[in-house]
Amino acid sequence: MCFNATSSFLAAAVLIPAGLYTLHAARHVNSHYRLLAAFPLLFGVQQALEGVLWLEILPDAAGEIGGLAFGSALGFLFFAYFLWPGLVPLAAWRVEPPGLRRRVFAAAAIMGGLLGGSLFLPLIINPDWLQVFIIRGSILYHPQLIYDPWMDREVVRAIYALIVAVPLIGSSDRMVRDFGVLILGSVIVSTLAFGYAFVSIWCFFAALLSAYLVVRLPRCESGGPVVHRPGSSRVG
Predict the structure, then answer these.
(1) What is the mean pLDDT of residues 122-141?
(2) Please, are residues 43 and 110 in contact by the beta-carbon 8 Å criterion?
(3) Bridge partners of residue 27, in order along the sequence
């Protein structure tokens, strides 16, 4: 599968306005969905950043990047490494009613924030730790990680996937749970078929799958799950 600037910019052009629509819809459905509703918009911005990187990166750059290419790569990884592992469980926590699951999701959000910070912040402190390649028509982000001396990257990837997927799949809200199944499926497919450039390709698939929220969330207004409100019971 070959990706390029056009595919990234096209995804951004669709998802950014779709995300604005989803945020607007969440205001009328239930405010607890707002974090989840922001996903298409945020994925759209992330894809736009990778589109810029596609325009700036040189196929024979041997991993070295600078200027706008470096800023775009760092911006993309801000979402991939730092934002998503904390925000996804936080969005699931926001929808979940009080109880054990909500406490687990809160713990996952804290763990995701710590993991994200440990993956991303070292790249700001040490810019030379980040290299980017074009491989098989895809972008490979190849940073040094602080875990490299004592942990295999596959283990880090598995922890990341669990933090992101478990709160979604474990949600008592059917829409969130179905979205989690889609995300987990994209992780599995990206790992098995496109492991050589997992971060870029999985984020692209997840961005496309966030369109599910554009279709599904507004329908919660009629017959969908009713999210908890303070002092009320959960129905759905």
Answers:
(1) 93
(2) no
(3) none
3-state secondary structure of 116: helix
Question: Which domains, ranges and CATH numbers included, belong to the chain?
Answer: 5-221 (1.20.1070)
Q: Which residue has the tokens 């990341």?
A: 160
For residue 17, give both structure tokens: 């306005």
The predicted-structure confidence for 68-83, as pLDDT tens digits, reads as follows 999 999 999 999 999 9
User: Which helix (H) or strand (E) is 211 found in, with range?
Assistant: helix 211-216
Q: What share of the chain is helix, strand, coil (3-state, %, to 5)?
A: 75, 5, 20
Question: Please, which residues bridge with residue 132 across strands?
Answer: 141
Q: And the tokens for 73?
A: 């790569």
What's residue 45's pLDDT?
A: 98
Is the per-residue pLDDT at 227 higher than 70? no
Helix (H) or strand (E) holding 153: helix 153-169
CA distance 100 to 232: 17
Instruction: State which amino acid sits at residue 73.
Output: A
What's the predicted TM-score (pTM) here? 0.90
Query: Are 9 and 51 contacting, i.e. CB atoms less than 8 angstroms apart?
Result: yes
The DSSP element (H or E) to which 135 belongs, if any, is strand 130-135
Task: At 24, list the tokens.
Answer: 């607007």
Which residues, 6 or more positions from 160, have their beta carbon under 8 angstroms from its beta carbon? Answer: 85, 115
Residues 6+ apart with CB under 8 A from 1: 137, 138, 194, 201
CA triplet 9, 70, 207: central angle to 5 degrees? 35
